[in-house]
Amino acid sequence: MSLSLAACTSTGTSAEPDGEDSTTIKVGTLRGQPHFYAPYLYEDHTEDDLDIEVVALDTAPALNDALASGSIDFAVGSITTTIAGAAAGRDVKILAAAADGGSGIIGGSGIDSVQDLVGKKVGYLESSAQLVALRLVLERERVDVDDLSLVSLAPPEFFNAFQTGQIDAFAAPEIGVSLAIGAGGTPIADPYSTEIGRLNIALIATGETIAEDAELVQQVVDAHAATTTYMAEHQDEWLPEMVEQYGGDEDVFATALDNFWMRADLSPTYETQIASLATQMARLGMIDAAPAVEDLIDSSFASREEPAESGAGS
Asked: 3-state DSSP call for residue 262?
């Protein structure tokens, strides 16, 4: 597996000028997606003895593979992919939320409702919260998923496939959602209206990492919490930096940012939603069986307080 190092501060263990050792950790995230940007800002919100090396990958499964192999130490990654990994016996633990939302169910010309998807080519992202939400919405609206022509795509492919008519609609993450709406696409259902709420991404590590250095894990969770708070309160400061790094239209990124909610807690509501997501993934045949929530989550490090908006489904 080829890992692209997107923001390297140092490698290995180095000595600071004051003689104290500095520890470098590798944090994986997804390339070019605004709600995955937090790791690039961790170093501004952590102690001097901890250096952050950001590793940008293209897919959520690649992040989990990198975590399992030890190529990275932590990841801001997909909760659904993490559930799938745990169901397959992987040693993965959710430490804290990272961002809710960032999803959309979008139709093109002539598609104004879920019922209009019948017979249409609908793009989806494998093992994603967006796919689970789509399946639950279809069930609620009494539309048989077998009556749709489903097309599996990677995150960067959705907008181009939509714009060129390769697909008629899609359920996918940002930034394809905002690009498609800007090009005339129509939101045809609320992806957050099911029992899994706005669940999307979290801070993840392995159980082995937690057992080996719980103090380090606490440092990273604290940096993650401080970073997400900063991002929620100072978007005008970091958005231009992100646009410069990623490339693209700042107005489109701003629209995408309006569609997600930064957080770093591990509240009881959040834990319940993760358990519901795992149950639905098993019921829908995405995994063989739902792992126990205690095998998915380590609640020792993040805040257990409910945020002002917990993203519960309606």
From this structure: strand
The predicted pLDDT at position 80 comes to 97
CA nearest to 207, candidates 103, 66, 90: 90
CA terminus-to-terminus distance, the chain? 41
Number of H helices and E strands in the chain, helices first, is 11, 13
> Strand 21-30 and strand 50-57: pairing?
parallel
Distance (Å, whole) CA 1 – CA 65: 9
> Which two tokens mark 221?
């969770």
Distances (CA, A) of 201 to 40, 212, 230, 262: 16, 24, 18, 10
Q: Is 207 helix (H, G, I), strand (E, B) or coil?
A: helix
Q: How confident is the model at residue 260 (pLDDT cuts 50, 70, 90)?
A: very high
Query: Residue 309 — pLDDT band, cuts 50, 70, 90?
Result: low
Q: From CA 130, how far away is CA 158, in angstroms rounded?
A: 13
- Buried/exposed 248-270: b ≥16 CB within 10 Å, e otherwise: beeebbebbbebbbbbbbbbeeb
Task: At 204, list the tokens.
Answer: 């993840």
pLDDT tens-digit map of 38-62: 999 999 999 888 999 999 999 999 9
Structure tokens at 247: 């490339």
